[in-house]
Amino acid sequence: MTDRIQEFLAERRRAGRDTGPCLVVDLDVVRENYLGFAKSLPDTRVFYAVKANPAPEVLSLLASLGSCFDTASLVEIEQALAAGATPDRISFGNTIKKERDIARAFEFGIRLFAVDCVDEVEKIARAAPGSKVFCRILCDGSGAEWPLSRKFGCVPEMATRVLEHAHRLGLQAYGVSFHVGSQQTDPRKWDGALKSAADIFRDLAERGINLQMVNLGGGFPTKYLKNVPAVKQYGNAIFRALSKHFGNRIPETIIEPGRGMVGNAGIIEAEVVLISKKSEAEGELRWVYLDIGKFNGLAETIDEMIRYPIRTEADGAPTEPCVIAGPSCDSVDVLYEKAPYALPISLEIGTKVLIEGTGAYTTTYSAVGFNGFPPLETFII
């Protein structure tokens, strides 16, 4: 909670404008985070993952600081361009793209595309001839609080064939990418992925194809209930792994921070709508219903993988374990039940609560109109 956010919320309440849950993002924190990445990984270009928070103010700030942008769709490309980024600072990083979208991105001037199979390479060769492509590989995501599935990427052995095919079709086989899992709390996890990348570099060099770039992906965490390593620790671990596996021929590198860039810059203010029990039995847990849930921006509580810090004015008072749920008429809209959440016993209906670390993946996950609830209101300060 920054002083600026605290003052903004206090003024909002005094003015009677607190009519529903809202997210407040402090741009000063975003700026500090960007500079932290730039300092900790000085030879690495930052490609901010637009999907984390595409607010125009966030994108414009990052563009002015020199950031590049990782985009997943034409809309995100347009948002990055509108914020002041030039096409050479934008990557179309989604491995699943319609051919007409590739062609439109090419018209915008985008020349850097992600792939993970031969068919995607062939689409790019037709729609964006001569472009640079990097192949995403599968890697171990253990240690991440939000592990990624096998939806994106291929095994390293296949990546060699994919990039060789791109070269034969006249594309520039540019590099390799991977993602060690979102909210990755172990800086050592980049080591194994970089070994696989180095093996691919060597295999293709033997075939006369010289790759240039490794996309180190995202995964850089923000602080929720547990402390996480500082960005500098990630930078040191990554540099050691690069030196270990590439020796003196360290390639170009890029990173794609999203959560680590904006997560700790945002706070959601919400309200307790109801507190009840399901029976009078001894030990029955209280259910605390908030006016925000999975469909209003807190989708990352699925399987209780992300446990947000929740603050109240009664912090420090005695607590008891509670189930926390959202307001919608959907039975899956329960945030924390498997591992109940300790909240003050004195909590009452109408109490305001602050949900910290919510600057990333909240507004973009907020549904439009489900049950008639409006999208999450956002203020950028």
Automatic annotation (TrEMBL):
* Cofactor names: pyridoxal 5'-phosphate
Q: Which UniProt keywords apply?
A: Lyase, Pyridoxal phosphate
Q: Does the keyword Chaperone apply?
A: no
PROSITE patterns recorded for this chain? ODR_DC_2_1 (PS00878)
Enzyme Commission no = 4.1.1.17
Q: Which reaction does it catalyse?
A: L-ornithine + H(+) = putrescine + CO2
To which pathway does this protein belong?
A: Amine and polyamine biosynthesis; putrescine biosynthesis via L-ornithine pathway; putrescine from L-ornithine: step 1/1
InterPro entries under this entry? Ala_racemase/Decarboxylase_C, De-COase2_N, De-COase2_pyr-phos_BS, Orn/DAP/Arg_de-COase, Orn_de-COase, PLP-binding_barrel
Boundaries of every Orn/DAP/Arg decarboxylase 2 N-terminal domain copy? 29-262
- Similarity annotation: Belongs to the Orn/Lys/Arg decarboxylase class-II family.
Q: What is the protein name given in its UniProt record?
A: ornithine decarboxylase
**What species was this sequence derived from?**
Methylocystis iwaonis
